[in-house]
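Continuing the batch. This is chain 6 of the set; chains 1 through 5 are on the previous pages. Same settings as before, nothing changed between runs. Recording input and output for traceability.
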Amino acid sequence: MDELFEVIAEDDDFLVVNKPAGLVCHPTKGDIYSSLISRARLYLKAAEPSHLINRLDRETSGIVVLAKSIQVAAQLRKQWEKREVDKEYLAIVHGHLERPFVRVSAPLAKDHESRVAIKDKVAPEGTSAETLVIRQKLFEREGKPFSLARLVPLTGRKHQLRIHLSHIGHPIVGDKIYGGDESLYLDFVVGKLTPEQSRRLLTEHHALHANLLSFDWFGARRTYACDPERWFLNFTKKPASNLLPNLLE
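Output for chain 6:
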């Protein structure tokens, strides 16, 4: 079952997996391996699909929790709705973050001027959104500056982390929507991304990884963590065995 996903933890109530970058959470018209839910059904050998508790964008890798019953799903979703869940992400961004710690408070709303239907933007009339950006490492690659950051979302808005990082002038590496040229996304979705466009993006998927998730479950704290994929680690020029422990110290 290794080809389906990395299993982080499993018990009678739920399954915790490390979703690969490039995999959608919900079923599509593709084959049985084309979505996380489809793969979970194969893994669990279940006639009915498991229940997604949290979702990640297609290109975002990392921790996803799937409940094995509707009763467990209802209990877990209440915690998400009440913001009782701690979440952290890792991101590689363009440029050197000047400050070690930034609290981004910028409301979000739909971007009606964009050609990308799913795109949002920072807007005064939008819904409040807050993100903590914690600098982990500054480095260069082929003479260009980059930063590795830990991100703590204090709210859970759509595309919040990606928009906030772009808003402060440090878009996520490989971000086709918020990286400054949305034509990259438009060409990508119709399969017309050119080799030159791919080189500009630097990575096949945007460099955002959900690395830590923690919540209470019947009096016990459940905390799960997982490393980013190899391409992410290689981009930072930091050995995989050393990266995650250092970030969580």
